[in-house]
Amino acid sequence: MVWRSVTRIVNDKTMEYEMYSTAKDGKTVKEMETTVARKQ
User: Is 30 within 8 Å of 17 (Cβ atoms)?
Assistant: First the structure.
């Protein structure tokens, strides 16, 4: 299984993180998604 991660900086206070896996049959599945925001 192969996996990849994507990190996006939305603005100065928000960041998004996603993790995908690709199985041997070629299908890609989003395994995790999280959004992090700074405390105000």
Answer: no
Distance CA 38, CA 13 (A): 5
Q: Which two tokens stand for residue 11?
A: 């603005």
Tokens of 18: 């996603």
Q: In the chain, what are the helix, strand and coil shares in percent, each to the nearest 5?
A: 0, 70, 30
Query: Model pTM?
Result: 0.77
Tokens of 26: 């070629």
3-class SS of residue 1: coil
pLDDT of the residue at 40: 82
